[in-house]
Amino acid sequence: MSRSSSAVSAAPSGAQRRLGASPAPRRQLRRRKELFWAVVFLAPALVAIGSLRIAPTISAVVSSLYSGFPGGVRPPVFSGFDNYLDLWGNEAFRETVLRTVVFNVIINPLQVAIALLVAVLMTRRIAAPGLWRTLVFIPAVVPIVGSSIVWSIALRPDGPVNAIITALGGRPQPFLTSPDQALASIMLIASWIGIGYWMIFLISGLRAIPSEYYEAAKLDRAGPIRTFFQITIPLLKRPLLFVLVADTVANFVLFVPIQMLTNGGPQNSTTMQMFNAYRTTYTYSSKNLGAAEVVILTIIMLVFVALQFRLLRDDDRAAKGTS
Amino acid sequence: MNRRHVLAAASGIAALALVGACSSGGSGGSGDSGDADWSIPDTDPTATIQVLGHQDADGIQEVIDAFNEDHPTITVEYESVPFDQLNSVLDARIGNQDGNPDVFWADQPRIPALAARGYMTDITDQFAADTGVWDPAPLASGQYDGRMWAVPIANSTQLLYYNVELVEAAGDPLPSAAIEDRMTWEEVTERAANAVEAGATNGLLFGQVNRYYQLQPLPMSLGGSAGGTGDDLLTPDVTSEPWVQAMEWYGELFAEGLSPLGVTPEQSDAEFLTGNTAYMVQGPWLLPKLTDAEFEWGVAPHPYFEGGEVVTPTGSWSLAMSAFSDEREAAAIFMRWMSVEHGGGYAANYASPELPASPEGKEQYFQRDVFDSDAGQLAAEIIDFETSNTAVPRLQTVGFVEFEEIIGRAFSDVANGADPAAALESASSELETAWAQYR
User: Fold this and answer.
1) pTM attached to this predicted model
2) What is the CATH number of the domain that holds B82?
């Protein structure tokens, strides 16, 4: 938004310079007016970014450099990087970081891949496409608290999912009560919600691909798989990368299903960094340590996102090179 | 409302010095609790106080209406937050330091932690004349570091409830309600297995599944500690033989299908009321709900391990005043009315109160309709005996908040099939880290 506004304000002043006829005071007045309106239009966004993004981030970083008695009353004292060193020395925390990274390395490509497959399917000539799309999208509009409750009942050891498995001749599974299956169950629930949501973005991306490319591919006798990898994927790279970045951020801060279904257990198998930071901050009331955990989470998340943006930049260069 | 004036400055400075001495690194952090320059007045001020609790607002309204009859100039604005969120909401609100809330429901075992954090006003002097009103255990739960921080409005104990039909179907005699016939856990386990075999869904249900409150008596009955030892009870002691043995027994209940996985404490009363559970450990708050039960039920004393000690849970809720209350006098009048007057206005006026914390309150409590039935009469006798003979308070430590959370997760892991010794070992090392900041 800021870029487009400065472009608008630059154009008229350039025109004035070329004319060179306007007297200085009038020019100044006009400039001031432009500046005024620029500020007016930018203010809401700047205030929002400043108060909702930049200020909390700075405050978290500052807070993480202090140590204090739990609770929000006793004033903390400056302790430099002590909180970070304590966390680094804590095996449970290191395991939590590793678990969070592994979770994201698995869930993000998986969700995006399935969302893409479903999106491609939905843009094919199928009967009642609106109905199918709505069905896939519904989980995304159900409040996550509600769907977590439903899943907690569905995945109970004596719940309906196990009833179906037993009816089909399988053995009942422990799901959320087993340290080996709980994280996978959380992935399942997160994906059940996420896939329909990200599918919508990919469908709009698919629709934006000009049909000529597909016709040309057809003339060249390219099969559906080759068409998918050589036409669809390259031309869908931008929406795909947006979805990947946004999905990554969403999964790094995944919280509600963990809090509601497993409380980080069994045996800490679903304790992710976001949940851990919440527990430190709100359950134990150790706000400064919690802030340090959030800063570490943010840094890891930024590294992931930076890698993904790098992919986007390479794509730009490649596109320029070929054109 | 005859309140005497209190000594102000001297005790205030003493309180500040005490709290300052126990705090690690905070200076003057105990809010304004040191300035005991106020007392509970003889005439009511005109004021509005904000009260934060976990009880349903509709239920509390009756209590507030009764309070307003006695104290019409004090307006009480009650706000309810779910039990699980009470502590985090308190952190945020009191952290704002703006006098909202003035009074809050304080979980008794958390009082040392909350007082040390500087959340509470020292009320030692203002309530000095009332300390004889309450039973000793609830009174002690509000004291920390030699000062008084909260007034008890309730107490609790645990009973063993049973479903007559399911016990008979299992071919077992009905348990006796007599204290001297108290069953052992070994016998209850056997009976639970018989009931499940005879078709009951649940043999034995812990109403507060995986919560320290209800499970603390298991290791203690086998001779274990409350979970912490040493100075200030900040050395974890949850890996001893009694703890491991108690958790092995607990884990087996779930492994053998005698207890259900996935029934939360919020759902447990309803689970028992469906009539599918043979035995259930739960507090007296289940009694009013049982008047609607469609099956015959009975009560027996809380079990113990064979050859071990008889230990029962206790403790409940107190009212504390925020260190930043801007209406201390009105807040104290409200707290005093709730906990002292009429045997405790809360217990006297709430539709289904917990067990009162004072003998006078208990007397009124046992006259309620729920104790009319034969089983109700027996329950009243058991409750009376346990609260004064077998009750053991929870671990009284500044580190209780962390302890309750960490040990609760270990219990939950054991219920889900984790190795008890390993789960307790891991909890112990987590506690070691979490408590380091207090030592």
Assistant:
1) 0.79
2) 3.40.190.10
